[in-house]
Amino acid sequence: MSGGGLEMSDGGLEMSGGRLEMSGGGLEMSGGGLEMSDGGLEMSDGGLEMSDGGLDMSGGGLEMSDGGLEMSGGGLEMSGGGLEMSDGGLEMSGGGLEMSDGGLEMSDGGLEMSGGGLEMSDGGLEMSDGGLEMSGGGLEMSDGGLEMSDGGLEMSGGGLEMSDGGLEMSGGGLKMSGGGLEMSGGGLEMSGGGLEMSGGGLERLEMSA
What we know:
Number of helices: 0
Helix content: under 10%
């Protein structure tokens, strides 16, 4: 699809073994479901907005350029494929994003969470030239680390939990006024940025040397 959008308010779209490519148009979901197996979704110059409904992807990745992902409800589940975003941010105020066996890579775009949940297993989160801001919601990572370059982590609420993965920051600081950061089995490495805490909690468990 080029120059047009796809809007789903009811009903479903199921794809197996094929790729959905969109340029110059957005995908808006307020109901219904989009299920994809062994095929990817590529979007350029268009965003993905979810307020209800579900997007289920197995064996294929989601690639977005010059467009953001906004979630206020619904669910996005990805297994065996990663999410790659360039020049577009991820904003969550509700809903759930679950990723297994695939990482989240963001360049020139930030991650903002005021609600909802982001769960990642066997995949890391890599951010360049974009920050992570949490005022609510939860981010849970297992068997994958968080790497940030030229972008800071700011928490005023919500929770960030990491197991078997470290937090590495270069060129950006960590600022906490609320919320909680819990790390087990991974270290905290910072270069070129400071740590400022006026509230919230930082807990490290079973830290490796």
